[in-house]
């Protein structure tokens, strides 16, 4: 029989989906002499952390929050030489939370590598287990979402995605009472498809309109259709169901991650901007009919090009058209101010900065619409 311990990946795959934190904690105590282990998950807005092994109270420790923001491990040594480590829990660019481990002393290089492996294995397992148990979603929610919000969050692809070519992030607000705004994405080789959608109406009805459009676009995309066919199938599905009484304003993008070319179908109100060096400009596209307005609507592709290092930002009308109290719309100047404040931030932080600027713009007033911000950094 081998003397080598069973790998943490093997243990996680054999565990019940709701027991992953306990499996990791037991493994680290047995094989790395950990005194204490905590698994911290982000809330829906990736602003705070909630422990899964301790009392379910928001964790505000600066080291954990720094690790979440920087996506880099951090180590703190106390006066007695004991070590507290924070390691990011991330999976394909999706920031899930932080693994905290307390050890009797600073770990050596081999131990540090083992800890990084444990964090990586746990992140993948948590992502896979999310559909099998409510434990992790419950920890992410600060309050009970509306039925519309529940439907929208289950429909989202995640909150970020990335590799060495790009980093993509999206944010949807208000988190617990959204209406019809939505974003979607899918990666296939060197092609990245991104859509931002604003379904008409309020509450659950708006969410159902969005769900119909999004699933129609996914159905077409998964059968190899381009963004024109995706838009046309979704438009026909909505028109067949609602007879033109409702529609979904949508921007569909397909990005070539090698050459930087972007194919676009502008079917409504979402706006597209590009940040290049210190300049921010709107991509001027010919606005075509929103999805579902008329039967058998046909769409056309427009094309523009990104340069290495460019930032592509897409915002729904809940962002660019927000005008609380009759003020000038957020998109006229305040959005550009918020975007300039993101210059040194990764896309995963930039979406939060834009949304924070939008909340401050409302000055405590209740937003009249939900809002989506999607940010892509093309690294090439």
Q: Would you write up a description of this structure?
A:
- InterPro entries: Bact_Sigma-Reg, GAF-like_dom_sf, PPM-type-like_dom_sf, PPM-type_phosphatase-like_dom.
- The chain is an alpha+beta fold and 380 residues long.
- It has two domains: 8-138, Beta-Lactamase; 143-378, 4-Layer Sandwich (Phosphatase 2c, domain 1).
- It contains eleven helices and 16 strands.
- It has helices spanning 8-14, 20-32, 62-70, 109-129, 135-140, 147-155, 203-222, 227-242, 317-320, 334-340, 347-362; strands at residues 36-42, 49-51, 74-77, 83-91, 94-103, 160-162, 166-173, 181-188, 191-199, 248-256, 261-267, 271-276, 279-282, 302-305, 311-315, 371-378.
- A hairpin with a 5-residue loop joins strand 3 (74-77) and strand 4 (83-91).
- Helix 1 packs parallel to helix 4 (109-129), helix 2 runs antiparallel to helix 4 (109-129) and helix 7 (203-222) crosses helix 8.
- The longest helix is centred in the N-terminal third of the chain and has 21 residues, at 109-129.
- The protein is globular.
- The termini are far apart.
Outline:
The chain has about 375 residues and is an alpha+beta fold. It has two domains: about 130 residues, Beta-Lactamase, CATH 3.30.450.40; about 240 residues, 4-Layer Sandwich (Phosphatase 2c, domain 1), CATH 3.60.40.
Which key terms come to mind for this protein?
single chain, 380 residues, six-stranded antiparallel sheet, 34% helix, alpha+beta, five-stranded antiparallel sheet, Beta-Lactamase, 11 helices, 2 domains
What topology does this entry show?
Layout lengths: L7 H7 L5 H13 L3 E7 L6 E3 L10 H9 L3 E4 L5 E9 L2 E10 L5 H21 L5 H6 L6 H9 L4 E3 L3 E8 L7 E8 L2 E9 L3 H20 L4 H16 L5 E9 L4 E7 L3 E6 L2 E4 L19 E4 L5 E5 L1 H4 L13 H7 L6 H16 L8 E8 L2
Helix pairs in contact: 1-4, 2-4, 6-7, 7-8, 10-11
GO molecular function: phosphatase activity
InterPro entries: Bact_Sigma-Reg (IPR052016), GAF-like_dom_sf (IPR029016), PPM-type-like_dom_sf (IPR036457), PPM-type_phosphatase-like_dom (IPR001932)
Protein name: Serine phosphatase RsbU (Regulator of sigma subunit)
């Amino acid at each position: 029989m081998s003397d080598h311990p069973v790998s943490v990946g093997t243990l996680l795959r054999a565990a019940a989906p709701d027991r992953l934190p306990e499996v990791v904690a037991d493994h680290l105590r047995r094989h790395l002499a950990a005194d204490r282990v905590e698994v911290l998950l982000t809330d829906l807005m990736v602003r705070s952390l909630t422990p899964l092994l301790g009392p379910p109270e928001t964790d505000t420790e600066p080291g954990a929050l720094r690790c979440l923001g920087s996506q880099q491990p951090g180590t703190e040594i106390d006066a007695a030489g004991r070590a507290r480590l924070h390691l990011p829990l991330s999976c394909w660019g999706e920031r899930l939370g932080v693994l905290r481990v307390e050890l009797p002393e600073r770990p050596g290089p081999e131990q540090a590598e083992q800890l990084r492996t444990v964090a990586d294995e746990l992140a993948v397992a948590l992502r896979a287990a999310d559909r099998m148990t409510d434990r992790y979603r419950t920890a992410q929610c600060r309050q009970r979402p509306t039925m519309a919000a529940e439907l929208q969050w289950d429909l989202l692809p995640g909150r970020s995605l990335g590799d060495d070519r790009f980093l993509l992030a999206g944010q949807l607000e208000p988190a617990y009472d959204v209406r019809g705004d939505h974003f979607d994405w899918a990666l296939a080789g060197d092609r990245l498809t991104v859509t931002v959608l604003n379904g008409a109406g309020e509450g659950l009805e708006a969410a159902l309109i969005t769900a119909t459009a999004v699933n129609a676009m996914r159905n077409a995309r998964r059968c190899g259709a381009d963004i024109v066919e995706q838009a046309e199938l979704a438009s026909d599905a909505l028109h067949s169901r609602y007879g033109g009484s409702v529609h979904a304003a949508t921007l569909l993008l397909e990005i070539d991650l090698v050459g930087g070319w972007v194919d676009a179908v502008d079917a409504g109100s979402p706006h597209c901007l590009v940040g290049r060096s210190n300049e921010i400009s709107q991509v001027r596209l010919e606005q075509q009919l929103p999805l579902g307005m008329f039967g058998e609507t046909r769409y056309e592709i427009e094309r523009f090009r990104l340069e290495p290092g460019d930032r592509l930002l897409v915002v729904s009308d809940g962002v660019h058209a927000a005008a609380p109290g009759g003020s000038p719309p957020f998109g006229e100047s305040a959005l550009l101010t918020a975007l300039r404040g993101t210059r040194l931030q990764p896309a995963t932080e930039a979406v939060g900065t834009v949304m924070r600027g939008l909340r401050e713009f409302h000055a405590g007033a209740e937003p009249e619409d939900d809002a989506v911000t999607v940010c892509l950094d093309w690294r090439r």
